[in-house]
């Protein structure tokens, strides 16, 4: 009798172990089947709300809105720089037609035209305050003095040429001579420095005029944005490198924006940045939530892979191949996490720009 009882107890224990193994196997099978379902299939199967998909849709909508708002804001900056460049070309380049030819603005072909264009720049610059219709003026240093306008000419150190005799004698080393003057008296340089403007065109390589101007982008007031102050580094180049009889004129501008030192805005045009900052903060929160959910999914996938590998090892004494293991790694989750990190960094930088 005792042997029968012991056998029955052993049989019941064996049956219980088999039942537990079947339950574990069925549970693993269900988890595997559920893992590889689409969000809609998961919802129909277990009625779990696809939070990750909802967060991704919300994130796409918010980041798109964020980019549109940021683009509209920067559109004003781009338009201001482009229109300022066009205004300065019309102010300082004689006979400028409003359309650049290839990469240069104006071309001159005679010595008289070169001097006319050169002295035209000086004359216009000395009368800037009476000519320009925009809020632009001469740049000043820390002591309140106007920064000078500078003219530099680069030419071959020594040269002699006779095209009719097919003979030349050129020293290819370049020499550069510069002079500067107060901007308000720039139109008097022609008489005060006549020797400087005695140009040997067969030796002249280029002539550059550089000066600095300051301006304010007032158009942003209508869009509830604080106007920025700009420092324009303007360079006008008379390019004679080809020595072909055609001198090309370039006008290049390097603009630096900064917060105005002393400003006051009254009325309804005051800037309300806190709403945009709150929106950017919410975007960061959504991106963090998205990254956390995707990281959690990757961790759960790794744990499921470990269970699957352990089951194969215990029941079939076989390791899961690398190809099957790669099926558990969803590359989209990795890309979403990377995009979330980039969106967070971009939002922080955007907040710093808006809160300046």
Report on this structure.
There is one protein chain. This protein is an alpha+beta fold and 356 residues long. It contains 9 helices and 7 strands; from the N terminus they run αααβααβββαβββααα. Strands 1, 2, 3, 4, 5, 6 and 7 form a 7-stranded antiparallel beta sheet that branches. Helix 3 crosses helix 7 (274-316). The chain crosses the membrane at residues 275-299, 332-349.
In terms of topology, how is this protein built?
Layout (H helix, E strand, L loop, with lengths): L1 H34 L3 H8 L4 H42 L13 E3 L2 H16 L1 H4 L4 E3 L10 E14 L4 E15 L7 H4 L11 E13 L11 E12 L7 E13 L14 H43 L5 H5 L4 H24 L2
Antiparallel strand pairs: 1-7, 2-5, 3-4, 3-5, 5-6, 6-7
Helix pairs in contact: 1-7, 3-7, 7-9
Largest sheet: 7 strands, antiparallel
* Span between termini: 91 Å
What is the C-alpha radius of gyration, as a whole number of Å? Answer: 37 Å
Q: Which structural class is indicated by helix and strand composition?
A: alpha+beta
Helices, by number, come to 9
Strand content: 15-25%
Order of helices and strands: HHHEHHEEEHEEEHHH
Number of strands: 7
* Low-pLDDT ranges: 1-14
Could you tell me the mean pLDDT? 79
Q: Portion of residues in helices?
A: 40-55%
What is the 3D form?
elongated
Transmembrane segments: 275-299, 332-349
InterPro entries: MCLN_ECD (IPR049134), Mucolipin (IPR039031)
Protein name: Mucolipin extracytosolic domain-containing protein
Keywords: Membrane, Transmembrane, Transmembrane helix
